[in-house]
């Protein structure tokens, strides 16, 4: 079982915790992580791009000049794709890029991503994360105490805490998430993975 230190919001070590091998100590599967990341990015695409084909562009109802005798190449419409102002060949249309991957693969990717954080010493476990008021300055102070103020960080909470979430949302490269909303992409995107003891217990319960 991986053993990591437990910190308080002052950056002091106040104990340690053993993490579950089934979640934080699996054999890392890079293929699964890659598949999960590609799937996440595809599912977040808007798919709203659109362009007009030659049948949708205004004008071009008749031939611009007669077929033969002009010395110029034959043309059927001034709205053909080779004309300025013409339609687009194979024009993109609104579509959904969403697709699903097997749940087992998704879970394996998540566990692999969490394991990489442990192996790279990029996981920080807090005894608790409680704030008296909504104050970005105080949250920045906590990050400085943990020596992660200059690095990107994903902060995982066991449940919704408006004071923490609103204090962190204006800080660049910092994102808060709940246990049931974490995903492989975010875990890998942010360098530091900050999680409370209560959230660790919940992760081990939900993803076991």
Automatic annotation (TrEMBL):
Residues 60-71 have a biased composition (Basic residues). Keywords: Ribonucleoprotein, Ribosomal protein, RNA-binding, rRNA-binding. Forms part of the polypeptide exit tunnel. One of the primary rRNA binding proteins, this protein initially binds near the 5'-end of the 23S rRNA. It is important during the early stages of 50S assembly. It makes multiple contacts with different domains of the 23S rRNA in the assembled 50S subunit and ribosome. Transmembrane segments: none annotated. Residues 43-52 have a biased composition (Polar residues). One of its GO terms (molecular function) is rRNA binding. GO terms for cellular component: ribonucleoprotein complex; ribosome. Belongs to the universal ribosomal protein uL4 family. One of its GO terms (biological process) is translation. It comes from the Bacteria. PANTHER family: 50S RIBOSOMAL PROTEIN L4, LARGE RIBOSOMAL SUBUNIT PROTEIN UL4M. Pfam families: Ribosomal_L4. This is Large ribosomal subunit protein uL4. The keyword Ribonucleoprotein applies. Part of the 50S ribosomal subunit. The keyword GTP-binding does not apply. Residues 43-76 are annotated as: Disordered. SUPFAM superfamilies: Ribosomal protein L4 (SSF52166). HAMAP family: Ribosomal_uL4_B.
């Amino acid at each position: 079982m991986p053993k990591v230190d437990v910190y308080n919001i002052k950056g002091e070590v106040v104990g340690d915790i053993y993490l579950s091998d089934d979640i934080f100590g699996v054999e890392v599967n890079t293929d699964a992580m890659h598949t999960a990341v590609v799937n996440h990015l595809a599912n977040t695409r808007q798919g709203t791009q659109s362009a007009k084909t030659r049948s949708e562009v205004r004008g071009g109802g008749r031939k611009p000049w007669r077929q033969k005798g002009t010395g110029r190449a034959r043309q059927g419409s001034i709205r053909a794709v080779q004309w300025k102002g013409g339609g687009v060949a194979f024009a993109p249309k609104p579509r959904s890029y969403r697709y699903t991957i097997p749940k087992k693969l998704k879970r394996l990717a998540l566990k692999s991503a969490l394991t990489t954080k442990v192996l790279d010493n990029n996981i920080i476990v807090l005894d608790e994360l409680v704030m008296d008021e909504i104050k970005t300055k105080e949250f920045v102070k906590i990050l400085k105490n943990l020596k992660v103020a200059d690095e990107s960080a994903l902060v995982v909470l066991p449940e919704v805490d408006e004071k923490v979430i609103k204090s962190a949302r204006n800080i660049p490269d910092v994102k808060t998430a709940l246990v049931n909303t974490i995903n492989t992409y975010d875990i890998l995107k942010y360098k530091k993975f900050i999680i409370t003891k209560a959230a660790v217990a919940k992760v081990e319960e939900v993803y076991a």
